[in-house]
């Protein structure tokens, strides 16, 4: 319920459309009641052969009522749908903003297909919240109250009959239907999430499934998941139609009851027979507002579940704290970074990735982090980027990293990760992601500097860089990092796919560019580390050694052994 309250508050921001929807919905409903009442009265009057001007006046009233009802219904649809589309648009912006703040930590908890289902399917499910849940009951109550006040001038017995019908069709029967439909609605959301997850996995793993000849098996699993989802939707549709039909049947029974009561009142002289047809026609049309209430609990439950699924994802961002102006200025110079007893483990992973890590990266220093695979080297970089939250303290220029917004850090960091994403477009488009001020001549020289002189700025780059080799991706990623004016460099295996000669040229360009900047490089290779101010050696999530190249070689510890192993392999 609290999640739906957030959505209602969001809708109130555009309250003009909401108020107009209720206003025109009420006008259309009450006009329909008046129109049917006038028709019933006209039928009765016509049987008594009144003067022609009376019939002409009544016909004119009916015609005017028809126009008012049609225009009001159109306006109600227009404003209600505009309010709904505005709400959905605002929700998408809100949730995507929250997801962007959470970043890659989302994938510790949710699979990509499940996320897709939540931010697309669940948001779409909330379109029924306003159209089927929020304002229809308000319109129904207003129309019923106005109708009952009008009918009370003619017969209190008929008023009681209409009230009983209202309670049955708008409260008792929908509550009964809700209990029956609850399990179905829950299964629909679960099956939709599972289908989205299976489809995403099928697309992501298409190549591997084909290579390992598991494509047909995965397709069968996908079709089975789709069939289950379709079956649940069909079952929900059948039940919805049945519930509406039952509600309509009850409303018709109420109309028969009004006919019977009215006939008895006319026979007893308590009601003028001229108004009997009018009351019957009113009973027909007034329940037009309550029959759709059969689906009210279903749409409410669906909206509540969808809202809970969405807010369960973005609630992680509420702990974010604003950044002060003073801390904003800290990243304009080459920053220092300190880790103090930092520990980290991925969710649902019993193994600790980092354990009591205490290291310092002085301002303007050049640091290499080495060690075997799985020792936590890349995790250190991700923590600096605030991709994850860890125990312990991480300080940037002496200020806790929690007091910095991610955007402030990202703005001043040049990053090359193990997997760099490339967008569909041209080489120029992928180089100018952060700085549009580079001229074509400067970009061409930059390509030469990173050993890509044969690439043209207008050469196409396919999605995820599919037309580039592994080495070309790394060099283009390095060029993109150089094109960004940051003072902190976080490089994760930036040259793992390059030969030694190209690697040396690339590092020469890097150190020229980052002469006064803070540079942190994660590498498996131990060659060329003599230029580093310090080397951090890690193993199994712990810092084993820290020192310069000459110091670590003299101590003949863990790093020395790694160096000897590398020499023996290369020989």
Automatic annotation (TrEMBL):
UniProt keywords, alphabetically: ATP-binding, Membrane, Nucleotide-binding, Transmembrane, Transmembrane helix
Source taxon at top rank: Bacteria
Annotated gene: cydC
Chief site of localization: membrane
Domain ABC transmembrane type-1 intervals: 19-288
Subcellular location: Cell membrane
Listed PROSITE patterns: ABC_TM1F (PS50929), ABC_TRANSPORTER_1 (PS00211), ABC_TRANSPORTER_2 (PS50893)
A GO cellular-component term linked to this record: plasma membrane
Pfam families, sorted: ABC_membrane, ABC_tran
Organism listed in the record: Halalkalibacter alkaliphilus
Transmembrane segments: 18-41, 53-72, 133-151, 157-178, 248-268
Membrane topology, from the record: Multi-pass membrane protein
Recorded GO MF terms: ABC-type transporter activity; ATP binding; ATP hydrolysis activity; ATPase-coupled lipid transmembrane transporter activity
Domain (ABC transporter) ranges: 337-565
UniProt-recorded name of the protein: Thiol reductant ABC exporter subunit CydC
GO annotation, biological process: cell redox homeostasis; glutathione transmembrane transport
Keyword Transmembrane helix: yes
